[in-house]
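I am going through a labmate's work and have reached the protein record below. What it holds is a sequence and that sequence's fold in token form. Please read both lines and tell me whether the tokens look consistent with the sequence. Do not assume that whoever made the record got everything right. Thanks in advance; the entry in question is below.
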Amino acid sequence: MVVRGSIVGIDSPQALEKALRSAFYLADEGLATAAYLALALGKPLLLEGAPGVGKTEAAKSIAAVLGRRLIRLQCYEGIDAAAALYEWNYPRQMLAIRQAGEDSIDIYGEAFLIERPMLAALRAPDSTVLLIDEIDRADQEFEAFLLEFLSDFSISIPERGTVRAVERPVVVLTSNRTRDLHEALRRRCVYHWIDYPSAEREARIVMMRASTVAESTARAVVAAVGRLRREPLSKAPGIAEAVDWAEAATLLNKGGARWPDAFKRSIGLALKDEEDLSFIAPRLDGLIAEAVT
């Protein structure tokens, strides 16, 4: 197996940070360094942080920078190896058997194999980025299976043999830290914790992602979102919600709504839980007024 020593055109964390910026992702020095080392050393990149801080977007942007296809494996409780690796197309196999009659047929040929994300990444490691999203949602049995996969990047298909990557694929794992991951999994990865960005950086992100939003609007939204994140909400607004809220308020303002009212009327873009909306409603006017001034 070939281990990457460098990525063409990206020879430093600073070069990667600049490339990510061109893909509309503002990475800080810590994230750019961790991602660069993962790429250069051929190790998986493990990104942890609260929901909405940009972990999945980081993986998408890395794929865009490398000019590769992103393959996403969304984890969930009860996910098993079949959903991650491969499955056989049983209906097609049965149909082929009936059509073949007495003739021999290889029902375990390529035509009957259904690729799932991990197998697809192993077969095309030089043109894909494998995103294993929200690994903390999976159970420990799947995590143990994943640990084995990340050790040698190979898959055993009993009917066809072993599929082994010719080079280490680019793998990004994300976790919202709803549970602790096994220490052995962490040891195999380059780790980075992504926190909410500073107000200055988040305002830049809003303006980058929503080009129609004025700087004053971006700063007001970021200030309001920052206050909301300090509240005991069940779903604090992430960066994507900040971008959406700024865009929505801008649209309402262009339609004639005054600024404080435009923010208030579009609050559903920032808070997307009825209990959170009810909880913040008595103080929403004051919160928005403080952010706008």
The two ends are 58 Å apart (CA to CA). The chain has two domains: 13-77+122-193, 199-292. The chain has a mean pLDDT of 91. Residues 274-292 form the longest helix (19 residues).
